[in-house]
Amino acid sequence: GVIIVVVYSAFSEGMREHMWSLVTTRSLVAVIVVCLVVLGFMLWFTWAVPGWLGFTREDRIAVQFCGTKKSLASGLPMATVLFAGQPVGLIVLPLMIFHMAQLIACGSLAGRYARRWEAAQNHVA
After folding, report:
1. Among candidates 86, 93, 123, which has minimal Cα distance to 30?
2. Helix, strand, coil abundance in the chain, percent, nearest 5
3. Alpha carbons 37 and 41: distance in angstroms, whole number
4. Is the model's pLDDT at 31 over the cut of 90?
5. Please, is 82 exposed, middle or buried when counting C-beta atoms within 10 Å of its C-beta (0-12, 13-18, 19+)?
6. Distance CA 54, CA 51 (A)
7. Distance in angstroms (rounded) separating the CA atoms of residues 45 and 5
8. Tens digit of pLDDT for each residue in 5-21?
């Protein structure tokens, strides 16, 4: 519930500051692309490095999910303090986009990992 309130607060702040009138379509597309590239790289990196270090599959999954978690729940309060008096909604726009992409990507990964685990359990039994 707290995360929902924080996300709602971030989007509301942006709307109150007329954030969407300050952002061009080209800038928005560029921010989305950069956020997706960063997320993709971090998902790969947090999977590959533990593999190179010999971690188990379960530990690699834990590192991957924990290593990519940067959310509005921690970023918005910090941005509000660090950028007091500035258009915070516009400043946290990349974080809002990254947060949404991260939830979608990690939800998809979690489902895939669960299906593979279930298939492995059915194969063993």
Report:
1. 93
2. 85, 0, 15
3. 6
4. yes
5. exposed
6. 5
7. 31
8. 777 777 777 778 777 78
Residue found by looking up tokens 């309060």 in the block:
77
59-90 confidence digits (pLDDT tens):
999 999 887 776 666 777 777 778 777 777 77
- Please say whether the dihedral angle defined by the alpha carbons of residues 45, 50, 54 and 57, taken in this order, is positive or negative: negative
Task: Write out the two tokens for 75.
Answer: 């970023």
The pair of structure tokens assigned to 111 is 């489902």
User: Is the distance from CB of 74 to CB of 6 less than 8 angstroms?
Assistant: no
Whether the pLDDT of residue 107 is over 80: the answer is yes
